[in-house]
Design brief:
Oligomer: single chain
Helix content: 10-25%
Strand content: 25-35%
CATH superfamily: Dihydrofolate Reductase, subunit A
Radius of gyration: 16 Å
Number of domains: 1
Order of helices and strands: EEHEHEHEHEHEEEE
CATH class: Alpha Beta
Shape: globular
Bound molecules: NADP nicotinamide-adenine-dinucleotide phosphate
CATH architecture: 3-Layer(aba) Sandwich
Strand order of the largest sheet: 5-4-3-6-1-7-10-9
Distance between the termini: 26 Å
CATH topology: Dihydrofolate Reductase, subunit A
Low-confidence stretches: none
Mean pLDDT: 96
Length: about 170
């Protein structure tokens, strides 16, 4: 199955501000929860902490350079709580280790934030983007979606945003 980056992205590439998402779109969050359930979800330590708890029903793979990150989380408030059914949390120290640990029988989701989208970019095969019709102030940005590299295959227009799917263009072998 594919490795797919999932993100809500403003017209200016914005994805985050001061550790949070700069808009409130419940339909996007609900869709995110629905499509990632049952799958591996790779995210940076900052995004995992910002969400505040392991999302139930899926395998969170948290990337951190800190070898003690897992222990620190276990000893923290949220880390001390029992996990919901079919919920796992694994800390790894690289994108390569995250992909090696992921369940590739289903879509492997790259859930951000900016550092992780960037680090996983060369290995990302598809993009699942909520294109938000806003250009908010931000300090975290999605990589540029270059038309030479990414081919739009699906667009579901809503009021103020659109769910858009991109496939990586196959490199010209000639
Ligand atoms: N709009 C969206 O769809 C969306 C989705 C997700 C997040 N966000 C936003 O994005 C922002 C957070 O993004 P961010 O870039 O600051 O943080 P992030 O990517 O979530 O996490 C950064 C952390 O990941 C670890 N890390 C990064 N690259 C690594 C690598 N190559 N190898 C090993 N570990 C690595 C480091 O953890 P250690 O410091 O522990 O070493 C680093 O501090 C927030 O504002 C959040 O709300 C938006």
């Amino acid at each position: 199955m594919s490795v797919v980056a999932i993100a809500a992205v403003g017209r200016n590439g914005a994805i985050g501000r001061q550790g949070d998402v700069p808009w409130h779109i419940p339909a996007d969050w609900q869709r995110f929860k629905r499509v990632t359930t049952g799958c591996s979800l790779i995210m940076g330590r900052a995004t995992f902490e910002a969400i505040g708890r392991p999302l139930p029903g899926r395998g969170s793979i948290v990337v951190s350079r800190d070898p003690d990150a897992g222990r620190k989380w276990l000893e923290s408030g949220p880390g001390g709580k029992p996990l919901a059914e079919h919920t796992t949390v694994l800390f790894v120290d690289s994108i390569a280790a995250a992909l090696a640990a992921a369940d590739h029988t289903r879509t492997v989701w790259i859930g951000g934030g900016a550092q992780i989208y960037r680090a996983a970019w060369p290995l990302t095969e598809e993009l699942d983007i909520c294109e938000v019709d806003q250009s908010p102030e931000a300090d975290a940005f999605f990589p540029a979606i270059e038309p030479a590299v990414w081919h739009e295959v699906e667009r579901d227009q809503r009021d103020g945003y659109a769910f858009v799917r991109y496939h990586r263009r196959v490199a010209d072998q000639g």
